[in-house]
């Protein structure tokens, strides 16, 4: 029997969270071509007194490990060829590594297999997704206050008075001359104007981000998608990696942080699971919109960002960095579409 013929005998069952299970049996004779390379692999990795590693005779290796272990190794090699044929035959759009269990194994008998795989899910967008932004009013940015400007000026004064050679300098007076020493400002009023501009711009960005968050929430309430567990775990790993980096930046070891919050790492993971699920669902929704609207990352910008990233992280894998940058740039285009920008 061909691999495709065997694959057709397997039963497909849909599981929750966008996963499938394929069960069936493999004729024992199908494994015959895999037993010799399986035995070779075993003998090359077997430690046996009196022989150098990798030089154990095949028949001695067979006697040492036994027929069942040899058969297990042959099944492992067979699956490498069989799995692609299995998911192709059943039109399974699998993602990630499958979980494969041998359910029945005995010499001269069919081998029972159960294969579980995550599947890239179907994403159904709401019919009116292009108009969701119309339901979310713009967020007004609060005006910049004199108190905020004064606080920034005091921070600049304190920076100017930092200790030099062990001697603390007195706080400088807020004069035109001091303003010129801070930067390319003609006067104290010019410095205040720039501070006002900067605080105002930051508040406007925060207001825009707040509205974007509401639009995202409104979209996710109406999107239909089963998020695969593998996607949630991937987002969890990113969240934890960022948390560990943030903790390290404050001079703490992650173990010390866990003691402070009185939680285990598993408990922290559980705390972030819903956030990870939301992030995964959002990425799937953005991917779907990009597919429908044929949105692609700007290639010139992508190449520029890739060059910049590799200059700062020369050990990073270029293909992975490129995928990340393309995703970020494409996401931003889609989010602007959601916000009503053309």
Q: What is the compact description of this entry?
A:
The protein has 342 residues and is of the alpha+beta class.
Can you tell me about this structure?
It is a single chain. This protein is α+β, with helices and mostly antiparallel strands and 342 residues long. Helices cover 59% and strands 10% of the residues. Strand 1 and strand 2 form a beta hairpin. Helix 7 (229-249) packs across helix 9 (265-293) and helix 10 (299-312) crosses helix 11 (318-338). The longest helix is centred in the middle third of the chain and has 35 residues, at 188-222. The chain is elongated, with a radius of gyration of 30 Å. 13% of the residues are buried.
Can you tag this structure with a few keywords?
342 residues; alpha+beta; 4-stranded antiparallel β-sheet; 11 helices; 4 strands; 59% helix; elongated
Instruction: Determine the structural class based on helices, strands and strand pairing.
Output: alpha+beta
Helical content (DSSP H or I, runs of 4+) = 55-70%
Biggest pleated sheet? 4 strands, antiparallel
Count of alpha/pi helices: 11
- Rg, alpha carbons: 30 Å
Strand coverage percent: 5-15%
SSE sequence, one letter per element: HEEHHEEHHHHHHHH
The overall average pLDDT, rounded, is: 91
State the total count of DSSP E strands: 4
End-to-end gap: 56 Å
Given as residue ranges, the uncertain stretches (5+ residues, pLDDT < 50) are: none
Strand order of the largest sheet: 1-2-4-3
Shape: elongated
